[in-house]
Design a protein that fits this description.
Elements (H helix, E strand, L loop, with lengths): L1 H17 L2 H15 L5 H8 L6 H24 L7 E4 L8 E9 L11 E11 L2 E8 L5 E2 L2 E2 L2 E10 L5 E6 L15 H9 L9 H4 L4 E7 L11 E15 L4 E16 L10 E9 L6 E7 L7 E9 L8 E3 L6
């Protein structure tokens, strides 16, 4: 059934792209036109086709997983669990609403991929034992990738779950990143709005999720709220990134839109998600070669530091069927 669903998504995505086939002819024509300005047409065509840029996928996963882990540690600490990660805790919340201030030292072995750890300060507003609004401030080591580092994620909701799995669910958006906001300052309507985000629906089509501007992470704790090396993570949602590359001779920027469905990460594989789908779109600016591209990607069970391109379009079309490197252990 999953294979049929994946095939249907690929077919539907291909059909959507057919309506834009004229655009790709225009892009190829543009390459040929540019080649008339003194460059080799074969070189221009070779530069036109490329593999999908996977950095936005890595940026999302390497931010979402540490953030969900921090939420799980915070929830367990306020419930009175004795955790080695906690270096300071102001309150264990005997009544609600309750405010707690937490300082923790992240243990790199608790994260499924290579992670430096570091000190995190958390301010939380608990409405009950099972739900809270948190702001996490990374005091030294920052999650993410070199082009996308995160110093703070403000006022994101977390809730304990039993279905679909025991654990925790969090939701955050790009607008929450590196914003200075304290959950203690939220008005009642703003608190409710934060919790309403936990009800966001997620499509089974990663291309549709691009427009969500929210990341939904389900952490499964394997029934051990005080042990984190057996936790697994499923990431869905969508967001946008800007990747700027500057050299002494040129400046270029890529605008990426990314959608995920069920990108699964666990300690069983530190290199790549082992299931799920992604859809990525890229538009490049500031370069002589036009760049308008998209691709449907599939995460597979082999722990091979790669993701499969089910279908590529535009500049990514030559990558269809190939494996593209994706290593979560890389910086």
């Amino acid at each position: 059934m999953q294979m049929i669903q994946r095939s249907l998504i690929a077919v539907f995505s291909w059909c959507r792209e057919l309506r834009s086939i004229f655009i790709w002819f225009c892009l190829i024509s543009a390459v040929v036109f540019l080649s008339g300005c003194g460059s080799d047409p074969l070189d221009d065509l070779k530069n036109f086709f490329r593999d999908p840029n996977i950095e936005p996928v890595r940026a999302t996963i390497k931010t979402a997983v540490p953030l969900a882990h921090i939420a799980a540690v915070s929830m367990a600490a306020v419930q009175g669990e004795s955790l080695s990660q906690i270096t300071a805790l102001s309150n264990t919340c005997s009544s609600y609403p309750c405010v707690a201030l937490i300082t923790m030292e992240l243990n790199p072995t608790d994260i499924p991929f290579d992670f430096a750890g570091g000190t995190v300060s958390v301010i939380g507003l608990w409405s009950s034992a099972n739900q809270a609004i948190l702001t996490a401030l990374f005091l030294d080591e920052q999650p993410g990738v070199p082009f996308f580092k995160v110093s703070q994620v403000a006022t994101f909701p977390v809730i304990a779950t039993q279905l679909p799995v025991p654990g925790y669910k969090i939701v955050y958006a790009d607008i929450d990143i590196d914003i200075d906001s304290d959950p203690r300052d939220l008005a009642p309507a703003e608190i409710q709005a934060e919790y309403d985000r936990l009800q966001q629906s997620v499509s089974g089509d990663p291309e549709i999720n691009i427009s969500m501007d929210a990341w939904v992470i389900q952490l499964a704790d394997a029934g051990t709220s005080d042990v984190f090396t057996d936790d697994s993570y499923s990431i869905s949602g969508g967001g946008q990134y800007i990747d700027i590359n500057s050299t002494s001779s040129s400046n270029s920027a890529g605008i990426f839109q990314l959608g995920l469905v069920g990108a699964s990460v666990s300690h069983a594989c530190s290199h790549n998600p082992t299931s799920g789908l992604a859809f990525i779109q890229e538009v490049g600016t500031g370069s002589a070669i036009p760049l308008v591209a998209s691709a449907l990607l599939e995460f597979n069970a082999p722990c091979n530091s790669a993701v499969k391109v089910l279908a590529g379009f535009g500049n990514y079309i030559s990558a269809t069927g190939s494996l593209v490197p994706l290593d979560l252990d890389a910086p």
